[in-house]
Amino acid sequence: MGSVNPSIDLAHDGEIAVVTIDNPPVNALKHEVRAGLIEAFQRVKNDAGVKAAVLACAGRTFSAGADISEFGKPRRSPGLIEVIETIESVGKPVVAALHGTPLGGGFELALGCHYRVAAPGTRVGLPEIKLGLLPGAGGTQRLPRLIGPERALQLIVSGNPTPVEELAQDGVVDAIVPGDLRQEAIAFARKVLSERRPLTRVRDREDRLSAARADAGAFTRAADASTKRARGLRAVPACVESVRNSFEKPFDEGQARELALFMELLTSEESRAQRHIFFAEREAQKVPDMPAGSKPRDIRRGGVIGAGTMGGGIAMNFANAGVSVTLVETAPDALDRGLATIRKNYANTVSRGGLSQEEMDRRVGLITGTTDFNALADADFIIEAVFEEMGLKKRVFAELDRIAKPGAILATNTSTLDVNEIAATTKRPQDVLGTHFFSPANVMKLLEIVRGEKTAFDALATAIALGRRMAKVPVVVGVCYGFVGNRMLHLRSVEAERLILEGALPQDVDAALTEFGFPMGPFAMSDLAGIDVGWRIRKGRGERAEISDTLAEMGRFGQKTGSGYFRYEGGRTPVPDPEVEKIIIDASNRLGIQRRTIDSQEILERLIFPMINEGARILEEGIAYRPGDIDVVWVYGYGWPVWRGGPMFYADQVGLGYIGDRLAHYAARSGDKALEPAPLLARLAREGRGFAENKSEDKAA
Ligand code: 3H9
Using one digit for the tens of pLDDT, what is the confidence trace for 596-606? Predict the structure, then answer.
């Protein structure tokens, strides 16, 4: 309990006041914190015995910003700008003591202090853009005054945290202090007093703005590049406008406009969607029936079976997480190829500046290749990534059961197969689960963790913890064909194929989705993934997809063969192909389908609504715990635009009544019963409610 209020403490070390924010877990600047800070700094101002102050935070980080859960609720005074102004005008030097990740409003608070010291490894940033916002407490005005408008814009538009070591020479921090941060900050404050240093205010600095004032060309170029990449996102031009104001307008005017833009964006659909994903991503890692004390098992060594593209990517994930890993492959040449690909992937990252050579060497050194299955005996978490075939997977698991040490987690990287059936081949089904990585496994953020009927809670907790260490976004899902993502994707693929048979062309279908915000449409995606993959699976299941399988039979497997639904003229850009058009029209004729013009609205509805419908079934069956889990799967695994919040969030915005009506219409027209509104969707539509209102709590109001 603090001496000012439950979140704020005010203590003294001689003539230095130490104000500490204590609001776990990340010291978000909720109302009580803001009010307490005003009170504390008024006391600092009025106490003649206090000559300087330190502003620090308890726990794992300096404040990570405004309390996002307060957004969308009525604003309560004092706002953060008032807090910062109170500190800035306190008349005595205030030193911010930074550690962890001072982000957003937390970093803005620090920029309002007269000096900043930081623990080594502290990372600062303004990630508001990731919430569809811009920094709203002076960040777009103060940061350019320290590092120049262009660099500030880059930092603000990327939203990524930057190590203070990279910003120290610009005065973002005045000192990097190893050792006890609080003591070092107090010592720094004493030094400021003894050296009679001035009360510097970032808002008064002009030197870094003069170049842009003289010639705004470089800023304009940086701004154009940012807005081009923004693809219609409103927050990006808002950031550009506001940073431009830093050198074109006086500080107060720039800050007033920044706040107005912030308030505007706060009410936007895009920001609501992004805030929804922020909380959904964190909630997805919570298993509702998991007992509170379920602790992850210790993971010291990983194992991966299969050195193909998937297995190699998964081995890299272990190494990226700092866990040594044994990579097993049956044939020595396949192993060598796999290890060479891993090295090549890392080398590419090094050449792009994303990794140091030293770090690459360290990570490569953590990966040991072998053809000896017995080498997995000391692994704590083994992931099988062999060919997607049940018989083979079962043989691998029987072998693992024999070799793996007791308590080791045995995971299958299947994208479709029944994890319970695989678990049943072992005498330890409690240790078996699915880890469904997405390709390329070392890049894609999503990790579907498949919970089997008998999977133990601590095994699940281990998989979630490992996923987080690998910097993935884990989502726990139940067992069914295709789990959450691929099961819904299947519906979209069926409908995409129907659309081209009925009259649309692949480029029309893809355009409807890219205009919606997906990075690519279903046909470009098939070409990227390889048309042969689905063809082989369908052959095994005795199914046929008219166009896709015709293309596969012609050897048009997609990008890797230079043609698929589109042609690829040496690059990755899909080019519409008259030959494909002919194949499609012939197929329509053969099947007796009268081709017609299909508008983009119908295309979009027919691609997306059946997926939402399947999402409703997934919820009813308990395959996903919450609608937000489905949203997270689609945003992080399938390129659903984050600013549309995922399919279930989007459905709530469109209205389930409308979606239900359209589904019923498409079901009646096609005679496909799978398109009829799922019972949950139909019920919620009748009740005038959305998916979000069907669960007990919704944090991202
Ligand atoms: C802003 O500042 C606007 C200003 O410019 C202007 C204002 C006028 N608020 O991620 P974790 C919760 S916008 C509320 O698992 P980690 C989170 O939900 C804000 N809650 O931990 C979770 O709760 P639970 C700009 C927050 O160690 C718990 O804390 N700032 C907030 O992996 C742990 O989170 C940002 O956008 C918040 N601001 O990562 C920073 N932050 O346990 C957003 C976290 O119930 N935060 N929570 O699930 C992050 O990026 C990460 O949380 C951080 C820690 C890197 C700090």
Answer: 999 999 999 99
